[in-house]
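Final report, Chapter 2: Outcomes

The project's central promise was a pipeline that accepts a single protein chain and returns its three-dimensional structure in a standardized token representation, suitable for archiving and comparison. That pipeline is now operational. To close this chapter, we reproduce one record exactly as it appears in the project archive, with the input sequence first and the structure output second.
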Amino acid sequence: MSAQSDGPYGPLIPMPERTPDALRAAVARIAPSRIPALTQHLFEATTNAQQTQSLAPLRAFVHSWAVFVAIERHPARAQRLRELERVVDTGEQDPSEAIAEIRAIREAAEAEAGL
């Protein structure tokens, strides 16, 4: 696992390795309510990988959950993302700036996760 500094308020956990087991352990620590979704996604990815004889579904699983962990391990970043998603979902104002910031958060999370 690798840690990244977040100013005086560090991440809740180090960034885990990009494996299903490490991601599951990280999600169990920072967002235990999401374990059923992770388990279902892993089951579907494994089934699809077997049916298609391709690792692409498993890669997509790892990518999705690594980004989730990279975001959620920083509570302020996760909260900001949820606020921005509400702006987009409600449609009460021009979402352009919110969409750009969401993209920036996700790109930073991908970089942090080594993707």
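Archive annotation: The two ends are 14 Å apart (CA to CA).
This record, like all others produced under the grant, will remain available to the consortium after the project formally closes.
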